[in-house]
Predict the structure.
Amino acid sequence: MPYWTTTDRPVGEQFSYWREVICEAFTPLATERRAAHRPPGPRDPGITSWVRSTPLTGTNCAEVVSTTQLITHGEAEVRRTGSDQVFVNLQLRGHCLAGQGDRTCVVPPGGFAMFDTTSEYSLEFIGEPATREWHVVSFRVPRSQLVPLLADPHGFTAVTHDARAGGLPSVVASTMMSIWDNVGSLDRSAADAADTAFTALLAATAGAGDALRDTGRARLDATLRASINRYVAANLRHADLPAAHVARRFGISVRKLHGLYEGTGSTFAQTVMALRVEGCARELRSGGGHRSFTELASRWGFCDLSHLNRVFKARYGCLPSQYRGSADGDGPPAGTVAPTG
């Protein structure tokens, strides 16, 4: 996980290094410490700050600790921005006085607000009195992933959502912290599912439009189903993969798991079996001919060779031995036709 800190820099270089860090970790930004931002006493040119950052999938996750300062994404920074993003800043310590467009907001500990990199905004982070530090978890969501789901694509920024009051803001905040605490242990399938779920929750909190209301459930289900299929395909040779195991892996009920495949033309069990036989065929095509067919059946999770033969013939119209013995190795031998179902 990328980690930047100013503490290993000479005091006189810390602030300039910090300006470079926040641009690299987030988006083009300008930062300054005005007289009111500095503690009383002799001028201290240093600034103690650190950032941890790691991608989920499309969304990037970060944790930031720094001291009181003004951070702006002004006209010059907007011009230098290479991609369109929405930042979701969850305040953990200190507070933030923020503004974008004609809106301003105060984000207290336990609150979050969103900011769009396609226009100017300002964030004045105020450290808590005891430590003079502020602490934020910040997610960077692709704008194209979130904004089409919103009822008002221009009025969602610089609006405080207070998770302490419960409801959807509390769910979003707890989801952010759960993702951040576990992002390093999520495989690609789980990360995809978490990313999709977080975006949908965020859109619902900010004010969902027809796109989310009309197609959100189907879209979420399709994305989750695709993530499950990728997980199954990647783990066919390492686990038995019963429905209960897969459902637990994705945090859903077995009933929900089976429901995801209703109307697709294939049940969950049929999907797993199709992926198993396709894996067998790939291995045969790639030169897995040195392994006995009994070993091949066991390797891909079939009960025995007769089970593999029966399922393989139903899928490809020939036995594995005929498939491996085909002239070009790329499909069933001449005279056989693979079923299309």
In short: The chain has two domains: 3-208, 226-324. The two ends are 44 Å apart (CA to CA).
